[in-house]
C-alpha cells in the first residue's frame, strides 16, 4: 500500500489535481458527481464498436434483404418481399425446417447427456469437482472446426469406426455414416454439449442441497425428488443451456458443411453460398434475417412457456 | 410420494453407480475424438486408419510448411492485437456497468448480450455487408475489427463476474486515506479486477485464435489464418498433417484454459443468463 502514502498530506485529493491539472485528472474532476456521464464515457468504446460493427451491419442486411441481385452479383436496393417469399417457398422451406429439426434433436441429446453430467459434477463431484469441470470446459475452449474435423477421421469410409468393424469382420463393406443426417446431428451434439453442460452446472451448483434432503426426509424417492425438486430448481440453467445450444446449432454451417451431404444442407450453408458463391446477397440477407426473427420469436415463446410453469 | 416412506439414500457413492457409469460414457464421447486425433498425429501412415508405428514426421513437416507457418503467425498477430483492444474496451465497460447505477444501463446490458445470442453466421454476413456498404474491402484490419466486435461481450461478462465480488468500501477507504479517483482506481480497483481482466483476455485470445466463421467471411484475399488454412486442407482431404496442426491448436487452447483456471482460482465458468433470470 505504499502507493497510498504519497498523497497523504492533503486530505482532499483534488488539491493535487488543482496543482497539476493533467488532462485525465481534470476530466475525472469534471465527471465527479455525474455517474451517468462517467459511465457513458467508459462504455463509449464498447458501445461505439457494437453500434458500428454490429447494429449498423444488421441494419444493412435488413435493407439488403428487401433488394434484389444485380447482374454482376451486386445488390440493387428496393422494397420487395420477394426474398422472404422465396425463403419460405416449397423449394427452401425444407432447409429451414431441417435446420430447426436437426438443432432441436441435437439440443435434446445434449440435454439428455449434459444434465446427468452437470448433476454429477455439482452434487457428486467431491474434491475432484474442478478436474471434472475442466474436462468439460476443454472442448468449449478448443476449436469447433477441429472438433468437427475429428469426426471425419472417425466416421469416413476408411475411418476408425469402419476399419475396426471391418477388421473384426462385423461388416464387409464400409458403413456410410458420414454425409448423412446422423453424422450432422452427431456433430452438432458433440460440438455444443459443453454449451449445455456449463450453464446447467452453474445452476445446479447454486441449488440449495438441503432442499433435496428435505424432499427425501419427507418421503419422496430419488425419482420424485429429481422431478419435483431438482429439475424445477435448475430450470434457469435448463433454459440458458438449451438456448446456448439451440441458437448456434440452428445457424451452424461448419458441421453440415464438413459432416453433411447435399441432402443435409442447413440454413447456414445456404446463407454461406448466397454470400460467397451464388452472390445473391439480398437473398442471403433475407435468410439471415428470417433466421434471427424465427429464433427471437421461439426464444420468447420458450422462455415464457418455461417461466410461467408452476414451479412447485 | 406414492409410497408412505421411501428410504433415504444412505450412501451417495453406491447409489450413484448408474449415474457414474453414464457420466463416464459422456466423458468418453467428449474425448474419444480428441484422443483419436492425438494418436493419429503420431501415426506413421499416410492413410490415417490403422496404427503403423510412432513417428514425429507430421510435426516435422508441419514446422517446415511455409504456408502453415505464415497462417500461424498471421493468426497470432490478429489474436494479440484484437485481444489488446477488446480487453481495454471491455474492462472499462465492465467497470462502468458494475460501478455505476444509471439510467439506460439495462439497454447497455442488453446490447452486450446481442453478440452472444445471434447466430455467428448472421454476425459474419452482417459484418461483411456492413463493410461492403461502407466501401471497405475486407483485409487484415477488418478481421481485427470483426474479432474485437465479438470478443467484447465475452470480456465484459468475465470481468463483470469478477467485479460482482468487489467490496466497494475498499474504494471508500482509499479515498478517505487521501487517494484521488485515479489513484484509487489504479491501486485498489484495478488490482482487484486484474484476474478477471487476464481471464477475459485469455478467453478472448482463444476465441480469436480459433475463430473460423467470422474470419471466413471477413478476411478478404490472402489473409489466411490457421483455421482458414485447416478448413481448406480438410476440404481437400484428410491428412496426418492436419492432425498435427489440430493437436497443436488443441494444446494452445488447453494451456490457456489452464492458465485462466489458475488466475481465477477456480473454474472459469462462462454462463450467459437466461432472459428473465437475474
Characteristic key phrases:
heterodimer; A: 312 residues; mainly alpha; MetI-like fold; two-stranded antiparallel sheet; disordered C terminus; B: 278 residues; 2 domains
Helix content of chain A: over 70%
From the coordinates shown, what is the CATH architecture of the largest domain in chain A? Answer: Orthogonal Bundle
Corresponding CATH superfamily of the largest domain in chain B: MetI-like
Summed over residues and divided by their number, the pLDDT of chain A gives a mean of: 85
Rounded to the nearest angstrom, the radius of gyration of chain A is 27 Å
What is the CATH class designation of the largest domain in chain B?
A: Mainly Alpha
Low-confidence regions of chain B: 1-8, 269-278
Taking strands numbered 1, 2, ... along the chain, how are they ordered across the largest sheet of chain A?
Answer: 1-2
Shape designation of chain A: globular
Structural class category of chain B: mainly alpha
Number of domains as seen in the coordinates of chain B: 2
Largest β-sheet summary of chain A: 2 strands, antiparallel
Counted up, domains of chain A total 2
Taking Cα atoms only, what radius of gyration of chain B do you get, to the nearest Å? 24 Å
Largest binding interface between chains: A-B, 119 and 116 residues
Order of helices and strands of chain A: HHHEEHHHHHHHHHHHH
How many helix segments of chain B?
A: 12
**Structural class estimated from helices and strands of chain A:** mainly alpha
Q: What would the principal axes of the Cα set say about the shape of chain B?
A: globular
Number of separate helices of chain A: 15
**Strand share of the residues of chain A?**
under 5%
